[in-house]
Amino acid sequence: MENNMNITSAQYVADRDDNNSSVQATIDGQEMFVPLDPANRHYAEILKQVEAGTLTIADAE
Amino acid sequence: MAISTIDNNGVNLGQLGNRNLIINGAMQVAQRGTSVTGVTGNGYFICDRWYWDSNGSSATNSLEQSSDAPDGFAYSFKATATTAFASPASGDVRYLTYRFEGQDLQHLNFAKSTAKKVTVSFWVKTSVTGTAVLGIYQDDGALYYGKQYTVNAANTWEYKSVVVDLPTSGTVISNDNTSGLRIYFGLYSGTAYTSGSTETWGNITNWFVGQDNFSANTNDTFQITGVQLEVGDTATPFEHRSYGEELARCQRYFWAQVPKGEANGAGGNAGQYIIGDGGFLGTGQIECHVQYPVQMRASPTLQPSSGTNHFLIEASSGIDYFSNLVAFAQKKQSSLLYNSGATSGTAGEYTRVAASSVNSYVYWDAEL
Predict the structure, then answer these.
(1) Using CA atoms, how far apart are residues B49 and B263, in angstroms rounded to an integer?
(2) Would the ipTM clear 0.85, i.e. be above it?
(3) A15–B53 CB contact, under 8 Å
């Protein structure tokens, strides 16, 4: 009953003001741009895996 | 007769609209595509709003929006086991899931003394007979429930209805845009979910008590359509909605802005699928505004294709092709798309952004 997403990479994307705007992630083999909205299922899963210590979000370039 | 004089005895409440709390119960809308093969994982693969879900190991399946459907319906969700999965381990379970927003379920009075009964009705067709389970999970209280139904004849469309007594105590469903309740149509289940009590709200062992295996043999099939969840203890006829109405409802959760195959790669205007208007921020940098057709449930994830010449900008200075898009400022109503790979154009110049390859797609996902 969990989403069981396979997240293989995650990196913040910064806007022109250098504020983090989204997370560029590869989820189940698909490149995605995930908004920083806890109600978004992808971002919720990213936060869950970060909390569990199984995923790190890299800084924006 | 004045409207105020019509009471419940004067109106056949079963004929009123908006009874069905399920979107796309007739499996009409399939924005992501109509078939997929080799599926072992979980995801929203074909019919909108229907999540192919599991725990543990899984059979391999092909999934399709099938035109095989009972009288009065055009489509069904069809799963075919392409490898046999005869002996699920304790933690293995497979089901087709539908998730409701909590704010759409407040009238059920879940976990209150005035809790309602609900009825789930549907058409099902499977290649083997047996006992199947409608499972339910309530997110806020982590409550599980299951109720059995019987498939009496193989390869035959059968109409089923399951009446569920909602609990009168516990944790209420939060009044927000997150998942408040989920229903599950089980295909097989390990013992971790079957050792408890059927028709009892409780822990996960109550979830799939009595569930038989509908994927035990290669080419076993499970099909379902006409799914309706309504308040009350009686199943009423399926509430058919137009394709346009169902599509609009689905787009709150998922919008295929550029469906696969819609840009044809032919070049010129005929081969483009317009994404939006934009402009050059500076040399090579373009930004494009996207307005969704409806307000989405949450800020959506951008799922774009990526590849040579998948996208283009066309401005007075010429056409530039590029391979990917980046999203900024994703909100429930709108977003910005960005690319820094355009080679022409000057700051302030108008451009339009389009998909240009037959393999291009742009998806926005705010599913539960």
Answers:
(1) 25
(2) yes
(3) no
